[in-house]
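Thread: Ribosome maturation factor RimM, structure

OP (GT): Posting the sequence first so everyone is looking at the same thing. Length is 176 residues per the record. Can we get the C-alpha cells written out before standup tomorrow? I want them in the notebook alongside the other entries.
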Amino acid sequence: MTKPNADSLMKIGQLKKPYGIKGWLWVFSETEEREAIFSYSPWWMKTATGFKPLTVTQWRRQGTGIVAQFEQVPDRNVAETMNGVSIWIDKDSLPSTEEDEYYWSDLVGLSVINKQDECLGTVKELFETGAHPIMKVVPSQDSIDDEPRMIPWHKQTVDVVDLAAGRMVVDWERDF
C-alpha cells in the first residue's frame, strides 16, 4: 500500500478503549452517521513515525456505540496501546460537497470576520451539541482581542464562507 500524502488526509474518528479480549476496540466516529465511517477506505492511523494502514476486519454496533477488529491488532495487549489513535482517510475518497455545504475539516483554520470587519480569530474545531454545531474560534495574530469564542455554525450566524480566501464572515458581535 502506498504511503498517503499527509496534506490530503482528513481525520474521521478515533480508537478508544479495548472491547473484550480478542483485540476489538471502541471506535469514535466523527462522520455524520456513526456507521458511515466504515464506508470509507483505506483507513490510516497516525503514529509517532507517520501514517500506517489500519484495516478493519469486522465491526458491529455494541449498545450505543460501535466496536471493530483490525488486522493490525491481534489481541487485547496490542489494543491497550491503541487507545486515542486517530483514524484518517484521503479526502479524495469523499463525495463532492454541494453548494454551501462543507466538510468541517475544510473550515478549520479559516479566519472568522464579523460584519463590522473585525477579526474574531481562527476556527480551531467544530463540535456537535445536539441543537446545532459550534465553532470554537481561538485568537489569532490578527484578532481584535485574546478572547476565545464559541460561535454557532448556523445559517443565521454564518453569512459567507470563502475557502479560497481562507475566511468566513459571521453575524457575531465582538462582545457576544
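GT: Both are above now. Quick notes for whoever picks this up: The chain is about 5% helix and 45% strand. The helical segments are 76-80, 104-107.
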